[in-house]
Write a structure and sequence with these properties.
- With about 250 residues, this protein is mainly alpha-helical.
- It contains eight helices and no strands.
- The radius of gyration is 17 Å and the shape is globular.
Length: about 250
């Protein structure tokens, strides 16, 4: 059982062309993902007169987020690794795939991408609010925390199995597709309870634009715990030391 090699890196990475290109790719992919995912919810609300949540709305949210994430991961995969999620980036750091300073750069780019996407949605829809993630009636913060931990565990475990594991072979579009599918499936499972974020940046963007921070910590702590468990478990149990290798796309 091998412990991942953690790399701190250097603040100078912030000025390296490769790091800046990777950060830009994360920013753009996050913008694409949030604009489509959050925008679909706003469009559904407009079409239904902001009525109560319905099963059709949940399915629409799952499909839009799944499709958009499939694209967002695909277009950034060869530049930044296609994380499109601070929790996935944390998992990559804990697995020794990127340095601590590259992790911080990614987090900033991802959060900025989510905020810009929500600002663009607010403007282009004529001022419609970008709804922040919130707990449903009867759902406590601890219920939501467990939901976010388990759902993000599934997401990051899928990322490791299909995109990080050096034994994965050449599987082409399977990794982005599997990642999009698990997010869509998790939204169907948890969307009615806490919104099913699994992504701190996705929660951060609308919270900033509408300035609503109720229980916001749940949408950071839950995904980070889930990502930590998934990345360390997969690395220590399934990735053998003699086959461990770095991903050049994230360096």
């Amino acid at each position: 059982m091998a412990i991942p090699r953690i790399e701190i890196g250097s603040p100078a990475e912030a000025s390296q062309p490769a790091a800046l290109k990777a950060a830009l790719a994360e920013f753009i992919s996050m913008l694409i993902f949030v604009f489509a995912g959050e925008g679909s919810g706003m469009a559904f609300g407009k079409l239904t007169g902001d009525g109560p949540a319905t099963p059709a709305g949940l399915v629409a949210a799952a499909l839009s987020h799944g499709f958009a994430l499939f694209v967002a991961v695909s277009v950034a995969a060869n530049i930044s690794g296609g994380h499109v999620n601070p929790a996935v980036t944390l998992g990559a750091f804990l697995g020794g795939k990127i340095s601590f300073f590259r992790t911080i750069i990614y987090w900033i780019a991802q959060c900025l991408g989510a905020v810009v996407a929500c600002l663009l949605l607010n403007f282009s829809t004529g001022g419609l609010p970008t709804a922040a993630f919130a707990l449903s009636s009867g759902v406590t913060v601890w219920n939501a925390l467990v939901f976010e931990i388990v759902m993000t565990f599934g997401l990051v475990y899928t990322v490791y199995a299909t995109a990080v594991d050096p034994k994965k072979g050449d599987i082409g579009i399977i990794a982005p597709l599997a990642i999009g599918l698990i997010v869509g499936a998790n939204i169907l499972a948890g969307g009615a309870f806490d919104g099913a974020s699994m992504n701190p940046a996705v929660s951060f963007g609308p919270a900033v634009v509408c300035w609503s921070w109720a229980n916001h910590w749940v949408y950071w702590l839950g995904p980070f715990i889930g990502a930590t468990i998934a990345s360390l478990l997969y690395h220590c149990v399934f990735i053998q030391p003699d086959t461990y290798e770095e991903l050049p796309s994230t360096r």
